[in-house]
Amino acid sequence: MIENMAKNLGQLKHDFSRVYEGNSHIQEVIPLSKSDTFPLDENHLEMLHSFAKKNPIYYNSYEQDIGKIPCIVYEGDINEYWLNSITQASSYQPFYPTWILSAYIIALVAKNLDYNEVLDIGSGDGRIAYCAKILDLETYSIEIDETLVDLQKLISFSTKIDFNPNCANAVEFDYSGLKLQHPVFFIGGLPQMGGDILASSIIEKINKIPYLEKNTGMTFTGTYSKKYFSGNMSAKMSEGGWRSIIDKNDLMIIKTLTLPTVWTFDQPVDTPYIFTKFN
Q: Does the pTM of the predicted model rise above 0.90?
């Protein structure tokens, strides 16, 4: 079901990108109702719409059929948050969110893999942690940008979904104090933009916590866009740019899903999310 829903969302994005006539900074769609194409829990679907409606980065919405699927189009602007995020000395990537429904599918994979806790590293407006929380997972949203954390707290208050926003440097965070049992870490930065350094630092911390390295998943946000690579591109692009980190840390790939994100709206290839665990 998950693979089909991811594939259908990719098709929905491509259909939407062909018919979209607006000029907003960011845009995305969420289906209006459950269907065979998107067999979401209806209460969860309502909560996804609630996230968009309560999130001030979206300033407009309207109904539109996309490829015969009734949807709500959400238009927004992240310029203010993007500019603020690049001023953070320890930030590994400016704020560019995945689509809300993509975040839900990612969190659904974590639940199906029987993880107990989701740690969203470089969480932006907290959408992955939010989706994990509505799926009844324990969540820790870790973001270094105080403005984005304030945005998360506003969304959490408005939606009444406490996904546990934390304003902290993920490299310095004390994960041992969380008493994690079976966590999955979502790394929000591309490897070419410092995400590899962030991931390596967190893996080093995990390896110092007894037994945790055997029970932890690592999920990486990759890219197949050639603009991020040079030289031997085919080797560097392997696993969305994460192959060297995966091999160096003896990680085993469980699943890879390609899903729409804000930065791939006008691109033919979407964003790969690579789910791994320690071998």
A: yes
